[in-house]
Design goal:
The chain has six helices and ten strands; from the N terminus they run αααβααββαβββββββ. The chain is α+β, with helices and mostly antiparallel strands. Strands 1, 2, 3, 5, 6, 8 and 9 form a seven-stranded antiparallel β-sheet that branches. Strands 7-4-10 form a three-stranded antiparallel β-sheet.
């Protein structure tokens, strides 16, 4: 097929009539990349779960799986923040820091990461674990607490290079196709705040924010419910210069007589062959 024929196929299959389609592009490569209508995120379900199946019920251990709970000073807990593309590398780094000290504050971070490594595959994601200070805000004065949950935020993020995925500058700048964001998170009921999403449309320098969308829902924990909850957003008329998409979401996990997590699935960034509405 000639380049003109590949261009015609792209135009017809993606309904791009009226969209800028310069002859200088390698239309065979564009067609094979299929940048429109497909999920541009890698490994969209790292926990191996589907939104079409109810999330598994948590398994509660009969006894604490890492011995009795020890409280940490808040100053230590706040500092437990690390990031790495490879959680196993991070785990090794923490082991070097904490050594064999069973009461080291880093042991909580170790427990969280170990469970995540066993249960999931985060290939394609950059990850970060932040262990939070104990939340004593709702404890009445004078009440003695023997056991308290240790919470952590687990962050997963990716940067999508739109041109590398097969899109072209004229389409992004003039046609400005709709960019659809979708995500599903588990209604774990570990806390009233268990999920956050932040998506940025970035310029060619990967730092200029052209458009941004954030979500931080508050959960109703008064009635038990355990299902997947959808979060979605459509970027349109976002302006010229978008070349990258930074997708970041984070979920809250807890450690109390065992590791309990909030999972995500079906994360997607899709560029649709639809011109942004005015």
């Amino acid at each position: 097929m000639t380049s003109a024929e590949w261009k015609k196929r792209c135009e017809e299959e993606w309904s791009l009539q009226g969209a800028p389609m310069p002859d200088s592009l390698d239309w065979k490569s564009v067609y094979e990349a299929k940048p429109l209508g497909r999920n541009l995120l890698k490994n969209p379900s790292p926990h191996g779960l589907s939104k079409d199946t109810e999330p598994p019920e948590p398994e509660l251990p009969e006894f604490p799986d890492h011995g009795p709970t020890h409280f940490l000073p808040d100053d230590d807990a706040v500092l437990l923040t690390s990031s790495s593309n490879d959680l196993q590398v991070l785990l090794n780094e923490i082991a070097d820091i904490s050594g064999s000290n069973e009461l080291s504050p880093y042991r909580y971070l170790t427990h969280h990461i170990t469970h995540l490594l066993i249960l999931s595959d985060f290939t394609g994601w950059t990850t970060d674990v932040e262990v939070l200070p104990y939340d004593r805000g709702n404890i009445p004065e004078g009440v003695v607490i023997c056991v308290l949950s240790q919470y952590s935020w687990f962050t997963m993020e990716q940067i999508v290079d739109l041109k590398a995925e097969g899109l072209w500058e004229e389409l992004l700048d003039e046609f400005q196709p709709e960019i659809v964001i979708q995500d599903w998170y588990e209604e774990s009921q570990l806390h009233k705040n268990i999920y956050q999403l932040n998506v940025k449309l970035l310029g060619a320098d990967k730092s200029t924010v052209i458009s941004e969308h954030s979500v931080s829902p508050t959960e109703d924990c008064s009635v038990y419910s355990h299902s997947w909850k959808e979060v979605s957003h459509v970027f349109s008329r976002y302006g010229h210069g978008v070349r990258y998409i930074h997708f970041l979401h984070r979920v809250k996990n807890s450690f109390l007589n065992g590791f309990h997590q909030t999972r995500v699935t079906g994360s997607s960034v899709t560029v649709q062959p639809v011109k942004s509405s005015a």
